[in-house]
Amino acid sequence: MIDKTLADCKQAVARVFDGATVMCGGFGVAGQPGQLMEALRQQGARNLTVISNGAGGGDFALGGLFSDGRVRKLIASFPAPSAKAFRERYLKGEIELELVPQGTLADRIRAGGAGLGGFYTPTGVGTELAAGKETRIIDGREYLFELPLRADFVFLKALRGDRFGNLNYRGTMRNFNMVMATAGKVVIAEVDEIVPAGSLAPESIHTPGIFVDHVVQVARHPKLVEKRSEEGST
Amino acid sequence: MMLTREGIAYRIARDLPEGGYVNLGVGIPLLVANFLDPAKEIFIHSENGILGVGPTPARGEEDLDIVSAGAGFCTLALGASLFDHTLSFTMIRGGHLTHAILGAIEVAASGDFANWRVPGQAVPAVGGAMDLAVGAPNVYVAMSHLTNKGKPKIVKSCSAPLTARACVRRIYTDLAIIDVEAGGLVLRELMPGHDPAGIQAKTEAELKVAADCREIDVPETFNGARLRQ
After folding, report:
1. In this structure, are residues A48 and A71 in contact, taking their beta carbons and an 8 Å threshold?
2. Residue A213: exposure state from Cβ atoms within 10 A (0-12, 13-18, ≥19)
3. Looking at the partner chain, which of A86, A103, A233 has a beta carbon nearest the beta carbon of B72?
């Protein structure tokens, strides 16, 4: 019998090693794997490369990896002003930042997950983010060549999952989670609820279990739930 | 007279057509949602995977799983759909949206513009700005005509880091509406109390005056003090 469920987040992050590349889904509070990232912070792996849309906030979960000085490099589109821990260490020169336009970030991950060697995009042409990139004219328009992204570990958040690793999301939780699910060696999802096999309608499965190695059921990180009452929380 | 931020947003909303699929950037563009004509069905797109963003929820009624790209929690409008980032940027970059309304630091006569990084900004963040700029067929800029220090923001050539080249179609400021055309900038509308020579004096790039150039028509409540950037 296939059973991809794990007992807790500690077990889920146990294999993350120093120097690993880690993807973290989520956009704003929606779809943040807060408990997995907090477990990773407590696990202690260092010298990480993190791929995420933003840089978290506060000193827990994703943001906590920055406040604890555990990240060597961030690949992101929008390290927001609220990402204070990242900003402090970046300004001290302790973290490298590879800034990637948001759509390019999504499609670099897609390329990584889909077995593609990269792609040409018009995004960024003529800007400082084009520096050092190959360009090509296709049908009279200039494009930049962008490379795929993959990760050793991918951390996702979904609403529900089953023992096969099938995942279902709610609201705007899909964001980067769906594409990141395809681009990791080890893919681990945090869900509100693990449901019995067969109870997710096949057409409501957004991430098929083929992409997912482990599923953990855990209540959401309390600091992400608190965000409900905070203004401008993205 | 000059337009308030809300006045610029109101005037842009008048130009959006029924059936439009529109992305609104942070700042003045986000205010456009407050002034859409309820008689027109227009979908607001959010980069993180919503087509059909609804109003901001009342305090205490937020849904933790429903956020928009720039403004925290939101609701979903009639006919809304939800999707992931790759499909969202397929809509953006593939030219499927009708309009992107974006703020700007500078716009050049060529339609080049800068909006993602203030010169000297220590920690850069780009988000979806560059994708929207190259993808949307109608990129409209909403901004104050002058900087806080009184310098023109419509320039011959951008000095701030570019967001994209030759993509802006129309500029809405607190003083004027200016189209970016192949032959250069064309002054279409201006605020009452100003003349084309006065607008040109506040604009570094050369303006041609449209034959049918007229006054911006908005309710009196949108006349306000000079905008801050």
Report:
1. yes
2. middle
3. A233
Using CB atoms, pick whichever of B65, B130, B134 lies closest to residue A172.
B65
d(CA A85, CA B78): 39
CATH topology of domain B2-224: Glutaconate Coenzyme A-transferase (3.40.1080)
Q: For A232, which of B72, B124, B126 is closest by C-beta distance?
A: B72
Whole-number pLDDT of residue A118:
98
The domain locations on chain A are 5-117+149-222
Task: Work out the percent of chain A whose per-residue pLDDT is above 90.
Answer: 91
Mean pLDDT is lowest, of A52-56, A229-233, B10-14, for A229-233
Q: Does domain A5-117+149-222 have CATH number 3.30.2010.10?
A: no
d(CA A3, CA B51): 36
Residue B169 CB neighbour total at 10 angstroms: 16
> Is residue A9 classed as helix, strand or coil in its secondary structure?
helix
User: Quick check: A111 and A123 in contact, CB under 8 A?
Assistant: no
Q: How open is the CA angle A52-A54-A60, to the nearest 5 degrees? A: 90
Q: Which chain A residues are Cβ-neighbours of B122 within 8 angstroms?
A: 87, 91
Residues of B assigned a catalytic role:
47
pLDDT-based confidence at residue A225 (cuts at 50, 70, 90): confident
Alpha-carbon gap, residue B43 to B45, rounded angstroms: 6
CA A40 to chain centre: 13
In chain B, % of residues over pLDDT 70: 97
Query: Shortest CA distance to A27 belongs to which of B194, B86, B76?
Result: B86
- Report CA-CA distances (Å) from B92 to A136, B103, B134: 21, 17, 9
Q: What is the pLDDT of residue B21?
A: 98
Compare all CA atoms of chain B with the CA of A96 and give the residue at the minimum distance.
B123
Put simply, the answer to whether B92 touches A103 (Cβ < 8 Å) is yes
In angstroms, what CA-CA distances link A88 with A38, A96, B47?
A: 20, 12, 27
Q: Nearest-CA distance from B107 to chain A in Å?
A: 14
Q: What single letter denotes the amino acid at residue B33?
A: A
